[in-house]
Write a structure and sequence with these properties.
Helix content: 55-70%
Organism: Neptunitalea lumnitzerae
Number of helices: 26
CATH topology of the largest domain: Amino acid/polyamine transporter I
CATH superfamily of the largest domain: Amino acid/polyamine transporter I
Pfam families: Na_Ala_symp (PF01235)
Subcellular location: Cell membrane
InterPro entries: Na/Ala_symport
Number of domains: 2
Number of strands: 11
Protein name: Alanine glycine permease
Strand order of the largest sheet: 3-4-7-6
CATH architecture of the largest domain: Up-down Bundle
Length: about 625
Amino acid sequence: MKKKLLTFLLAILPILNFAQESSTENELSTSEKIDATFKSYTGWFVEGIFSEIKFGSVDAKVTLDLTNETPDNYSREIVGDTLFVSNILMPSAKIAEEVETTAQNVTVKEGAVLAIPTAALAQTSEVTVDAWSPYAKIPWVLIVLIGGALFFTIYFKFINFTGFATSIRVVQGKYEDIEKHGVDTLYGEDTTQDEALEAIEEDGADGEVSHFQALTAALSATVGLGNIAGVAVALSIGGPGATFWMIVAGLLGMASKFAECTLGVKYRDVGPDGTVYGGPMYYLTKGLKEKGAGGFGKVLAIIFAIFVVGGSFGGGNMFQANQAAAQFVKLLGTENENAGMYFGMVMAVIVAVVIIGGIKRIASVTEKIVPFMAGIYVVASLVILGFHFDQIGDAFGLIFEGAFSGLGIAGGLIGVMIQGIRRGAFSNEAGVGSAAIAHSAVRTKYAASEGIVALLEPFVDTVVICTMTALVIIITNFDGSVMQYGVEVKEGVEKTAIAFDSVIPHFSIVLTIAVILFAFSTMISWSYYGMQGWKFLFGKGKITDLIYKILFLMFVVVGASISLGAVIDFSDAMIFAMVVPNIIGVVLLSPVVRKELNRYLNAIHKKHEALEEGADDLAK
């Protein structure tokens, strides 16, 4: 174990070393050093995880009339002595690298903007650009995520819809008695009341948290900046139609969450002190071993554990701290270069107080924070939608029209579909396997009970909260004051803030607080995810735990202090690399999930029958 820990520490020392170095006028800044170092060593990995499968080719050409000052198929703006041509509206169009024109010095910027010197307009009246055919490039990891979700939806007979009402009742505690003691103990045909009471005293369910606490702990890791900033970015690229496909991704993801979280409980380890160790690492190892593929399962589990640890330090920590610090500094309006570092130190202390207490402390915090922050956000969204009640129908009209036509967005129908599905899948993390770690700590004797609860997570995260954000932006953007569809925005939080401020003055202040709370809750939940992966790799012990927690807290400060482009790209790639071993394992173990589902549904049915018989006897 010591050798493994030493190797890991040597691997991350460059980050900490660079974070401590100061920049000079003639040297690269700290952020640039980290970016350059990480990109040189990890760029291949990031490109591999997010690489796209090409569907279609450049086979169309569109001519733009530059003499028309009010064109209907593109946007134009003259800045100084340059004409900028952008947002070209045509079926599935995208500016290619080559531009046909007689004008000189015509350049392409970022694959989406033409820059033409106004002096050149005297030489040419039009330009011809290449346009993609009505197909798109699809990230392969997205195909795996959605493919898995479709498989689980069909295999479990649309559990994402048929199990919805049951999931609500489970969260309400309707079946807490049978989950804690077993249906046969309480409602067995041959069990007397005295025997049942004796069994209850001796036999209780393993686990550390309730269904609601497990749900909020998992939600706190997914409900966050993606719901605020990510939706705005998706709309800027894919237009209103992306919302429809985002909802589809959320609904399909419910089946993935059900399957992986059922397995998380089924194959968890419970220590002598009642501490639970669960997640894909355990069901990949134990579940596949039962199928005679123990070696394969062990390899998949180790790969997953490495990815979850890396993801917890980056996307689940540094990125969250960085964005929260940026919003906080922006709110203060200070130019103090150390403000981010001070914010990170305070955040690290607060995070430390929570994560030192383990999943019980994390769950007790998230069960209060998540409903509170989500409630404020949803209420504010409802206020805006109520203020623009007469425009909601028009907003949905744009959503459905854009979902199936593309509305001239680059990539057309497929492009819009990809943006929506990508945002939905990446926001709720269904299929990634991370949520199974939190859900595995629940108190229950029936693994499928938590799987049914978990399917609510993508619904709340994507179908409700992301859709709320999208509707607010679409309605407040009818006049084009928030964004221009088809032109990607970089600062999604700012665009969402503009949309909210247009109806609720200064709500951006509340939104900043929400961003900080979202970031905080995501960090504490991902600390638990990373800790579980760390323990699987390096063993369970106080020293092992302490080393991980110290490293995690150090990365909070690092993340809040500097810009981490390449590091965050790498950590995000690690998070979505978790999809591969997880989906493989869950698909292979699907029969086990179905068996657990039938076992739990039969227990519920048996309880209902016993209660009905008791009511009949009482009536007699």
